[in-house]
Design a protein that fits this description.
The strands form three sheets. The chain has a two-stranded antiparallel sheet. The chain has a two-stranded antiparallel sheet with strand order 3-6. A two-stranded antiparallel sheet has the order 4-5. It folds into two domains: 39 residues, no CATH class; 234 residues, Rhomboid-like (Rhomboid-like fold, Up-down Bundle). By secondary structure, it is mainly α. Strand 1 and strand 2 form a beta hairpin. It has ten helices and six strands. Helix 5 packs across helix 6 and helix 5 runs parallel beside helix 7.
């Protein structure tokens, strides 16, 4: 006598396995190997994957991705600054690290790397030589200058502030918005240095971006109705440092502060409806204004 075939349902992915459990989403039978615990019952792998595709990603209060909690942009910016300094120190030797004067002898001297990438309006490297600078077509200086430093102390002070401020702002704004804030603050400070300092003066450092981050943190916390009392002294100290220490780019610091604040205001106070579009247009408008200002300065130097 032959046995009657089993009528028990089988897993749709493993036909050899009988099961009485069904996916709560598609109602197909699933075996223990295919079960994924859900808020109610279990789901099959395909329904879990479909749910992930259609699920709305978590966002910060300002519309950014929560991936900013990992601080990847902040870490990448620090790595870029350190890499530029390592190259500059390798080229310039010990005096590029410290002992070249400034800040009680703790500052380092410039190297061919800082000379190549710093903010320079329009001047030759040597008397009678070919003119260099932004007005000579070296527009990349408006970006590279924010990643170059004169000595280890200069680098360490800026990177310490970037680590403290950057991780917090990246978490609140999200990676993309934070990166835009950092770059626009830096470019804003460099454009200000280009416009308001002598065309043969060089300036470099992440301070342009850092000043923007200080004011941005105040604006973001104000928008979130958090305490800002500890941030005001930080801003005041940095301003006192700017105006009291020689060989500091006052225009660069103030420019970074102003444009970082403007970008932070756009990011923090954009209305929730069409927020990403308004934030993007606001940041683009800031960039266009900076570009126009740099073009006007260039025409004035070449005119």
């Amino acid at each position: 006598m032959s046995e009657a075939p089993s009528t028990a349902p089988v897993c749709y992915r493993h036909p050899s396995k009988e099961t009485y459990i069904r996916c709560t989403r598609c109602d197909r039978p699933i075996c223990p190997d295919c079960m994924n615990e859900a808020s109610v019952g279990h789901q099959c792998p395909e329904c879990v994957a479909e749910g992930r595709r259609t699920q709305r990603q978590a966002r910060t209060a300002f519309g950014g991705s929560t991936a900013g909690q990992a601080g990847y942009v902040t870490k990448a910016l620090i790595a870029i600054n350190v890499a530029f300094f390592a190259v500059s120190a390798a080229v310039g030797g010990g005096r590029a690290i410290a002992g070249a004067g400034g800040w009680f002898g703790l500052m380092g001297e410039g190297t061919s790397v800082t000379r190549w990438g710093s903010v320079l309006g329009y001047a030759p490297y040597v008397a009678g030589g070919e003119p260099h600078g932004i007005a000579a077509g070296e527009w990349y200086r408006l970006v590279t200058a924010m990643f170059l430093h004169y000595g280890a102390l200069h680098l360490l002070l800026n990177m310490w502030l970037l680590w403290q401020l950057g991780r917090y702002l990246e978490e609140k704004l999200g990676p993309l918005r934070f990166a835009g804030l950092y770059l626009l603050a830096g470019i804003g400070g460099n454009v200000a240095a280009y416009i308001f300092t002598a065309p043969n003066a060089q300036a470099a450092g992440a301070s342009t971006s850092i000043f923007g981050l200080v004011l941005a943190m105040i604006i973001v916390n104000r928008r979130l109705r958090l305490d800002i009392s500890q941030l005001i002294p930080l801003l005041v100290i940095n301003l006192l440092f700017t105006f009291s220490v020689p060989n500091v780019s006052v225009a660069g610091h103030i420019g970074g502060l102003v444009f970082g604040g403007i970008v932070a205001f756009v990011l923090a106070y954009a209305p929730s409806q069409r927020r990403s579009l308004i934030q993007g247009l606001g940041c683009a408008a800031v960039f266009v204004v900076l570009l126009i200002a740099a073009v006007i300065r260039t025409q004035a130097l070449l005119g």
